[in-house]
Write a structure and sequence with these properties.
The protein is an alpha/beta fold and 238 residues long. Helices cover 28% and strands 24% of the residues.
Length: 238
């Protein structure tokens, strides 16, 4: 019997956001009267194709229970790890326990990317659902790129023609992503995104062009910019 692939989402959210300089993890910072992670979750909850969302949290997380989606029946809590790759691997285990098949698609998205557009999520799913490998959202690099030397001076100008900014979601089959992460962790390589784990095994994930407003909140100045983008999308009032 042929398996009809389903779609699951994973939000690694165990980080503390040191670059924000805040005592509160960045995914819980206030963004237009709501926590950042609430804006992130609502995009996936609004898509009927997403079976469930696994949120990987720090075991000592003291903020999650106060968010509006903490008790949502479609949201599953998992234990986060020391690094992003550990959190994603733990979340894959939770997805499997929830009934996912190894041929199901998993979309891994940064909890601190609250401005993902529903149209980009749809474009990613429709483009990759029959792909042999999977892929990720991104945009081509538009600025001149420089490589720096150890002393902080320019070492070279890099041809930007084939360079992209890697965004999330990153969408791969559950079984393949699990094997790729296991291989990286066994080799003690803490890959910083899911595509890198597949690249290690010789796969070439596909880029799907999205919008540049899919920013990741990492610094204090990103919050007002995210608010502006959400207003432009009509998701919050001006």
């Amino acid at each position: 019997m042929t398996h009809i692939s389903q779609f699951w989402a994973i939000l690694p959210a165990a980080g503390v956001g040191r670059r924000m300089g805040s005592a509160i993890p960045k995914q819980y910072l206030d963004l237009a009267g709501r926590a950042v992670i609430e804006h992130t979750l609502e995009v996936f909850l609004a898509d009927d194709r997403i079976r469930a969302i696994v949120v990987a949290l720090d075991p000592a997380d003291g903020y999650w229970d106060d968010t509006r989606y903490a008790a949502h029946p479609q949201v599953i809590r998992a234990t986060g790890g020391a690094e992003r790759c550990h959190s994603v691997r733990n979340a894959l285990t939770a997805v499997t326990a929830a009934g996912a098949h190894e041929q199901d698609w998993v979309l891994v998205h940064d909890a601190a990317r609250p401005c993902l557009q529903a149209t980009d999520l749809d474009h990613l799913i429709t483009t990759l659902r029959d792909d042999a490998v999977g892929g990720l959202l991104g945009i081509p690099v538009r600025d001149t790129m420089k490589r720096a030397a150890a002393n902080g001076r320019i070492a070279a100008t890099v041809d930007r023609a084939s360079l992209w900014h890697a965004y999330t979601p990153q969408m791969f089959r559950l079984g393949l992503l699990g094997r790729a992460l296991d291989a990286a962790l066994t080799a003690n390589e803490l890959v910083t995104d899911d595509a890198a784990a597949l690249e290690r095994l010789g796969y070439a994930p596909r880029f799907v062009e999205g919008h540049a407003d899919n920013i990741k909140i990492t610094r204090a100045e990103d919050l007002p910019l995210a608010r502006f983008y959400l207003q432009q999308q009509g998701r919050i009032e001006r």
